[in-house]
Amino acid sequence: MPRKVYIHTFGCQMNESDSARMLESLVRDGWVGTDATAEADLILVNTCAIRDKAEQKLYSALGRYRSAKRARGTLLGVAGCVAQQEKGRLLARAPYVDFVLGPDNLAALPELVRAAASGKPSRVETAWMDSDSYAFPRADAEQARGRITAFVTAMKGCDNVCSFCVVPHTRGRETSRPYPDVVAEVRDLVGVGVREVTLIGQNVNSFAGGCDFPALLRRVGEVPGLRRLRFTTSHPHDFGAGLIRCFAELPVLCPHLHLPVQSGSDTVLARMRRDYTADAYEAAVAALHAATPHVALTSDVIVGFPGETEADFEATLRLVERVRYDNLYSFVYSSRPHTAARLHEEAWGVVPYEVQVERLERLQALQRSISRERMAAAVGTDVEVLVEGASRTDPDRLCGHTPQNRMVNFSGSAMPGALVSVRIDRASPVSLSGREIGLVEAAAPPAASSHVRLPVVA
Ligand code: SAH
Ligand code: SF4
Ligand code: F3S
Known about the structure:
Blueprint (H helix, E strand, L loop, with lengths): L3 E6 L3 H16 L3 E2 L8 E6 L4 H21 L2 E6 H6 L1 H6 L5 E3 L7 H9 L5 E3 L15 H4 L4 E5 L1 E2 L10 H5 L3 E2 L2 H13 L4 E5 L12 H9 L6 E5 L8 H9 L6 E3 L7 H7 L5 H14 L4 E8 L6 H14 L3 E6 L7 H9 L4 H24 L5 E9 L7 E4 L5 E5 L7 E9 L3 E11 L17
Parallel strand pairs: 1-2, 1-3, 3-4, 4-5, 5-6, 7-10, 10-11, 12-13, 13-14, 17-19
Antiparallel strand pairs: 8-9, 15-16, 15-18, 16-17, 18-19
Helix pairs in contact: 9-10, 13-15
């Protein structure tokens, strides 16, 4: 019987991608994945430290998994950003954890698991790799066979100094992957049937792996068979004319951009150390709209940042009204270890929690009405959808996304991987609903068995 691993992933696309690489390396070591904790021989929690709530989720999950360990001797590992932030302190708080693994140390996973399985003492692997010696783990294309969409890592870490953010402390210095490796991984994935690739990195548009980010998009865009290209997350700092031209000139690049603004007040933006003004942000958005009229934007906003006044917050509301995002991810400010904002909280003025929550609710109500209007505008139109599989809400229907990244549930008969035209008859603030009215392009035929497996850094 192969041993089974359950991976519980919190956080962003970087963590999702790291979880996929960890699973692949364990599968090569004889494990199989499971989605039932009760039958797992190893539980791996891949953690996020971005807000205090995210960190608390680790400790409540560990409490649950500890009983599995008591009952069945399940091995327990903690990976990701809390692992990197807490290192050995995590073992002091939860001594039953078998290993702590930082994001730079994924290659050590199979060995750590073998050591834990043979009863060796708990270990902590959280050393930083310097940019020259770091080898980006590569997707195992054979294991991706049958997938329609995939994340491909372009860079890791972050050299920005946003005063609220823990990521530079958990993911280290910005390091770009050499562009030929990015292109080769995309080619491999497309070779096994993947049709849509999202290039990922905390600050992906600062890519510098032998070419700049617009040049990387153009190179990846040339991979034959790739139908859709996306990227996330971008910082307004590096959002320039070269990138805007890519949206206008590359048909494969989807008209969707996630461009976090964080606040509409210049005073708050300066305290956040975001190095742009609200006007500069809106000018970049206007230039993008001029080049790509149908582009859909999404963003992140923090409310209740230290010192945020009612007038600052209203500036955020006005900006959101003007930009008209498809969707907005908004959060209450959370004080994080090692950040500059934490040091200045008292001086700038802590915003009481009730005020933070009240502002968050107002912002979310405004965004809901904008989302509702934007999605309703699609009713009666035909949209192109990449079929991803059965709908989660109704297994008799299909599900996929438009180029603008709007989720569509629809009735139809196309195979996963096909591009279809869907007539929209209903909309909610978060998804569209309709019926398939035609095939744009059939799903890719099963990939040829001559596919060459390139060496994998595990
Ligand atoms: N690299 C991305 C953001 C990564 S974190 C960027 O620069 O845009 C994702 C989002 O979490 C951020 O955009 C921010 O809105 C939110 N976030 C980060 N730190 C936070 C904190 N301390 N409190 C509340 N929200 C935070
Ligand atoms: Fe954090 Fe700022 Fe880097 Fe984004 S750009 S990861 S918010 S420090
Ligand atoms: Fe969270 Fe780490 Fe991503 S802190 S948002 S998992 S980079």
